[in-house]
Amino acid sequence: MREKELGNGAYKKKDFQTAIQHYSKAIELDTAEMTFHNNLAAVYFEMKEYDQSIKECELAIEVGRENRADFKLIAKAYNRMGTAQRRKGGVDNLKAAKISYEKALTEHRTPDYKQNLAEVESAIKKHEEEAYINPELADSEKQKGNESFKKGDWASAVKFYSEALRRNPKDPKIYSNRAACYTKLTAFDLALKDCDKSIELDPAFVKAHLRKGNVLKGMKRNAKAMEAFEKALELSPDSDEAKQGYRECAVRQQSAASTDPEETRRNAMNDPEVQQIMADPSMRMILEQMQSDPQAVSEHLKNPEIMRKIMKLKDSGLISMQYR
Q1: Which end of the chain is more exposed for a tag (fewer CB within 10 A), N or C?
Q2: Same domain, yes or no: 263 and 139
Q3: What is the pLDDT of residues 31-75, one digit of tens each?
Q4: Which range of residues forms the domain containing residue 294?
Q5: What does the alpha-carbon distance between residue 84 and residue 100 come to, in Å, rounded to a whole number?
Q6: The overall pTM is greater than 0.70
Q7: Is 297 in the same domain as 255?
Q8: Within a domain: residue 62?
Q9: What pLDDT does residue 185 have?
Q10: Torsion over CA: 13, 19, 23, 28 (sign)
């Protein structure tokens, strides 16, 4: 134990060679104590001698098993071994680290060990996804998707486009193509998600904005659809599709507001942003106040955030405002 304490002191001073001498002496004097091997593994880890650290962890576990050591100490050795394997890098070492972390959790479950396992699993998944990327094969799958789309086999097209995205997740055109399939299948939420991803990858991709507008139009979210078509027109002022889409949504918006207030309300409440505004107790109080005291609106409009929310409700047709 005296040698161990001397080793600890040297370790804290980062005098690793001296620490190794003392821990090795402690092992020589007491071969049944796994802690000395654990400590020695920690020294080698700090020295970035990961293979030697792993070897000492394995010895620690072996000695611990033979001498019925506390399961927490064995878990600690497995965890340290996993971290050394992880630091070595490479998918094979990451997989070895995963096994070590799983064994650590079998011995003793702690939040840190669970976090380590989750991180290494995420790293393995990322590595495998990156290894799977192949733009040439992605283009081949994309072409298969295009052929299926032309035949009206949209479900198969989705399958091919999804595989193409696994092969090349940075291609905005594939997301846009899959969005078109989802639109045909009336899976509007999925289509909208793909349009947004396509726009995120290439904000100037006009077709993605057009598709987003058509998806939102299909969802009867006319105000949002108008915004998408407006963005398409900013990028391509001569786009007939954007002009036509914007006009149709504007007519729908006006028609719904003038003929069927209940339909207007239902369409507006399909918009998650409108739902959030209407669920806000403070906004509900403001709207009630505006009904009882129309003059209060000018005071509330001085607050930019409240003004934005009120204008959102106005544009959606839920409220009307008159200016004097």
Answers
A1: C
A2: yes
A3: 999 999 999 999 999 999 999 999 999 999 999 999 999 999 999
A4: 276-315
A5: 10
A6: no
A7: no
A8: yes
A9: 93
A10: negative
